[in-house]
Amino acid sequence: MDSRHPILVGDVWTPAHGERSFQATNPATGDLLPDQYPISDWHDCETILDQAHEAFVRMVDTPVERISDFLVTYADLLTADADSICRIASLETGLPVSPRLRDVELARTTNQLRQAASAALDGSWRLAAIDTQYQLRSMLSAVGPVVVFGPNNFPLAFNAVSGGDFATAIAAGNPVIAKAHPLQPTTSRKLAELAAQAAAACRLPPGTIQMMYHLEPEDGLRLVRDRRVGAVGFTGGRPSGLKLKAACDSVGKPVYLEMSSLNPVIVLPGALRERLPEIAQEFCDSCLMAAGQMCTNPGLVLLIRSTEALQLQQQVAEQLHNRTPGILFSAAGRDSLHRSVQAIVQAGAELIVGGYPLPEPGFRYANTLLTCSADQFLSARDAFQVEMFGSASLIVYADDDRQLSQVIASLEGNLTGSMYSSRTGEDESLYARLAPVLRQRVGRLNNDKMPTGVVVSPAMCHGGPYPSTGHPGFTAVGIPGAMRRFAMLQCYDRVRPERLPNWLADANPNGRCWRWVDDQWTTADVGAAR
Most buried in the list 165, 309, 402, 432, measured by CB within 10 Å? Predict the structure, then answer.
C-alpha cells in the first residue's frame, strides 16, 4: 500500500504514478516531518493536462456567478479552518502563527480571493471594446489552463493553490494546475482539500483545480511547454525562473515571473540629519522581517558619504548584532545566502557584521551588513547586485550626488525602490534629480517608507523591470490588473449578435461593466451611450 499522500487529479485524490517520494523539514529544528509525499512523473502530468483541457472547454460556458461563488466559498472555508491551516504552515516554515500567518497573511489571502470574486462578477477587467461603425468587438477572455508555481516565503498568500496567481487565474476563467512548493506539502494539501470542497459545492467542472507536490526539473519544463497549457505563473528564485522563461519562450507561451530584487533604499542627507535613529529602526525592522526572506527585503542602501551616514551604519550594525536572527526556510536557503554573502565579499565589499551560518538547531544565519564604495560598485555592478535572500544588506557610499545618480542608473530592474527625504524641503532639489532615475528602475516607488509591505489594492504594482520580473507591464498583486495576465485578447468581426459573448452584447450584461463603446467609456447599453 502506498504510504504517500495522493495528488489531486480532476476532482479526485489519486495515488501518484511516480515511485519517488520526499518529506518536508521543520526549519526550527531541522527534523524531518513524518508525512511522505510523491514526486510525480510525466504520467501524472499527462493525466492532469488532459483533465485541465477538458475543464477549460467546460469553463467557457460556466456562469461567472459560479466562479465568483467558488472564490467566496473558498475564502469562507479558509477563515473557518484558520487555526489548523496556520498551525501547519508554521510547522513547515518557522513563521509565527500570530501575527504573521493568522492575522496578516491569511487575512490577505481571503481578501484577494474575495476581490477576485468581485472583479469576475463586474467584468470591467475584460476591457471590452465595441466599434459599431466597423462591427468590431473585442475583449479579454480566459487563456487556458494556468500552471502556478508557488514560492517558499508566503505559504498562504502566494501558495499555488490559494495565492494571488491562483485567485486571478480562476477569476479570469482558467483551470489551475498547482505545483506546490516542496517545503510546504502539508500546508498545500490542506488548502487543496478546501479548494476541492468549495469547487464541488459550486459545481465547477472537474479538473478546474488540480495539484502535484513535486516534479523532476525536466518534467516541469516539459509541462510548461505543453500545448494544453495557456500560461504560467511563477514566484521564486532567478535561476529557476529563467529556466521556465526559456522553456516557455521556446514555444511562445506567456509566462509571468517574479524572481529577484534588491529593493534599493536611498536616504538623502537632509533626512539623515533630521531623523537618523528613526530611519535606522525602520530599516532594521524591514530587513529582519521574516528573517529577510521577503521579495521586497531592503537589500541595498545608497548613501552620500558623511558623518551622519557613518552613524546610520553604526546604529544599524549594532541593532543587527543585538537582535536574534530569524528562522530560515531550509538548509538550502541558508547555504545559498552564505554563498551570496561570500560572493559580495569576494567582489570587494567589507563585512561589518554577521556573514556566517549559525550552529543552533534549525536553519539560521547571522544578521549581516556589508559596505562598499560607489567606485567599487560601478566597476563591478553585476557582482554587487547579487540577491542575498535573508537578513543581509549592502550599503554603498557615493562621494556626491552626481555619483549617487550614477549608481542608481546602473541598477538592475527591481520590484520597488525607496527614497527618504527631509520633511522640511531641504532635499527637494536633490530628490527632483534622483527620483526620475530611480523611477525607471523600479515597479513601485516609495517615499519615506521601507519596501516591505505590499497592499492588495487595484492601484498596486508588484512587478517591475527585468530581472525582478519577466515583463514590466504586469503586476502579481492588485486586482483586476493581475487577472489580465491570464487572458488573451479575442476579437469578433461582424459576428452575428446572437453569437457574441454576453460581455460584448448590445445590452450591458450587468449594468455596471465598463466598456469602451464608440470611443468612450460607458456602462450604458450600445445605442444609449451618447
Answer: 165
Q: Which residues contact 272 (CB under 8 A, 6 or more apart)?
A: 279, 303, 306, 308, 309, 311, 312
How far is the first Cα of the chain from the last one, in angstroms, to the nearest whole number? 69
- 312 Cβ neighbours under 8 A, 6+ residues apart: 267, 272, 276, 279, 280, 303
216 flagged as catalytic? no
User: Which residue matches cell numbers 550599503?
Assistant: 395
Q: Which of 253, 82, 138 is nearest to 503 (CA)?
A: 138
Mean pLDDT of 22-43: 97
Catalytic residue among 45, 105, 202, 258: 258
**Is residue 1 pLDDT above 90, yes or no?**
no
Going from the N-terminus, what domains does the chain have, and what CATH number goes with each? 7-19+34-122+134-259+476-482 (3.40.605.10), 265-447 (3.40.309.10)
| Interatomic CA distance for residues 76 and 114, integer angstroms | 9
The pLDDT score that the predictor gives to residue 357 is 98
- Residue 295: active-site member: yes
Mean pLDDT, the chain, integer? 97
- Would you say the C-alpha torsion 516, 517, 519, 522 has a positive or negative sign? negative
Residue spans of alpha helices (H) in 131-226: 164-171, 185-201, 217-225
pLDDT at 112: 97
CB–CB of 84/190 below 8 Å?
A: yes
pLDDT at 530 over 80: no
* Confidence at 476, pLDDT banded by 50, 70, 90: very high
pLDDT surpasses 90 at 18: no
User: Per-residue pLDDT for 469 more than 60?
Assistant: yes
Going by C-alpha positions, the residue among 136, 137, 224 that lies closest to residue 179 is 224
Distances in whole angstroms, Cα of residue 504 to Cα of each of 263, 284, 298, 499, 530: 42, 52, 45, 10, 18
Which pLDDT value is given to residue 157?
Answer: 97
Task: Give dist(CA 82, CA 426) in Å, integer.
Answer: 48
- Distances in Å between the Cα of 257 and the Cα atoms of 309, 416, 456 are 35, 15, 18
pTM: 0.96
Catalytic residue among 295, 372, 461, 513: 295
Q: Is 459 left (phi over 0), alpha (psi -120 to 50) or beta?
A: alpha
d(CA 31, CA 451): 33
